[in-house]
Design a protein that fits this description.
By secondary structure, this protein is an alpha/beta fold. It is built from 10 helices and 7 strands. Helix 3 (63-75) runs parallel beside helix 4, helix 6 runs antiparallel to helix 10 and helix 8 packs across helix 9 (240-248).
C-alpha cells in the first residue's frame, strides 16, 4: 500500500510503539486517526504531528466504545486499520488475579477482533484496504510467566491467518507482525530484568516501527522480527517438544523474577 494514500486508524497510539508508528506513518504522508488510553498524551501527540491528524477517545473493551470508534473511522474514510493496542502481565499464571488475566485477553485479543469485525464491511468497500495486527513473538513461542499474554497473541495470530484466507479473493490485505521484546513502558522493570538475565534482545520502538512500515509498503503477510526468535518460532511449529525442553531450562530464572512481583 502507498502510505501517502493511506487513511489509518491506529489503536494504542500513546504507547511507545504506537507513538513511533504515528510519527513514521505521518512522515510518509498518511492521514491518521489516533486512539489511546492516555487522553492528555494523545492530544500532545496530535499537536506534535500537526496537520492531517485526528484523535478519537474510545474504550476498546466496551461494545459501545468499539461502535463509536468505528463510526468515527467510517466518517474519516479509513482504509487501513492497525490493531496495536496491547496489555501485558508478567507473573506465574496461578498467582495472577483473574481481573489481570481478563484485561490482557480483552485488550490483546477480544478488542482487535471486535473492532475488525465492526469495520470489515466498510473496509471491503474500499478499492484497497489493509488490516495490520501487531502480535508478539510469544504468539509463536508461548513463554512461561506470560501465559495469558501468550494465549492472547497466539489467538491473534490464528485470527489473522484465518481472516487473511477468508479475504483471499478481496482487496483487503491482512498483515500480522510478531515483534520480540521492545523497549517501551509495556515491559516494566521486572520484565526488563528478566530479559537481561535471559540475554534476550530488546529492540527500540523506532526500529520495530520501521519494519512494520516496510511490511505495509511491500504487503508482506507475516513478519517475525528478530533472530533467533524467527527461527525458534518455526521450530516450535514443527517440534514443540524441543522448545518445551529449551524453555523448561529457563523456568528457574522465570520463577526467580516472578517472585519479585510479590516482594
Amino acid at each position: 500500500m502507498q502510505l501517502n494514500q493511506a487513511r489509518i486508524l491506529l489503536t494504542g497510539a500513546t504507547g511507545g510503539l504506537g507513538q513511533e508508528l504515528a510519527r513514521q506513518l505521518h512522515a510518509q504522508g498518511a492521514y491518521l486517526l489516533l486512539t489511546g488510553r492516555d487522553t492528555e498524551l494523545l492530544g500532545t501527540l496530535q499537536k506534535s504531528l500537526g496537520k492531517n491528524v485526528d484523535v478519537a477517545h474510545a474504550d476498546l473493551n466496551r461494545g459501545d466504545g468499539i461502535a463509536n470508534l468505528a463510526q468515527v473511522a467510517r466518517t474519516a474514510d479509513i482504509n487501513l486499520l492497525i490493531n496495536n493496542a496491547g496489555a501485558s502481565a508478567f507473573d506465574l499464571f496461578e498467582n495472577q488475579p483473574w481481573p489481570t488475566v481478563d484485561q490482557v485477553l480483552l485488550t490483546c485479543l477480544h478488542a482487535p477482533i471486535h473492532l475488525t469485525h465492526t469495520l470489515l464491511p466498510w473496509l471491503r468497500l474500499q478499492p484497497q484496504a489493509a488490516i495490520v495486527n501487531i502480535g508478539s513473538s510469544f504468539g509463536s513461542i508461548p513463554f512461561p510467566g506470560f501465559v495469558a499474554y501468550s494465549a492472547a497473541k497466539s489467538g491473534l495470530k490464528g485470527f489473522s491467518q484465518a481472516l487473511r484466507r477468508e479475504l483471499y479473493d478481496t482487496h483487503v490485505s491482512v498483515i500480522h507482525i510478531s515483534p520480540r521484546a521492545i523497549r517501551t513502558a509495556l515491559n516494566n522493570a521486572k520484565v526488563i530484568a528478566l530479559n537481561h538475565a535471559l540475554n534476550s534482545t530488546i529492540d527500540e520502538a523506532s526500529s520495530v516501527a520501521e519494519q512494520i512500515l516496510n511490511a505495509l509498503i511491500r504487503n508482506v503477510p507475516e513478519v517475525h522480527i528478530g533472530f533467533p526468535e524467527s527461527l525458534i518460532a518455526k521450530l516450535n511449529g514443527s517440534f514443540p517438544g524441543l522448545i518445551d525442553r529449551a524453555l523448561g531450562s529457563k523456568l528457574p530464572m522465570v520463577k526467580q523474577h516472578a517472585s519479585a512481583c510479590h516482594s
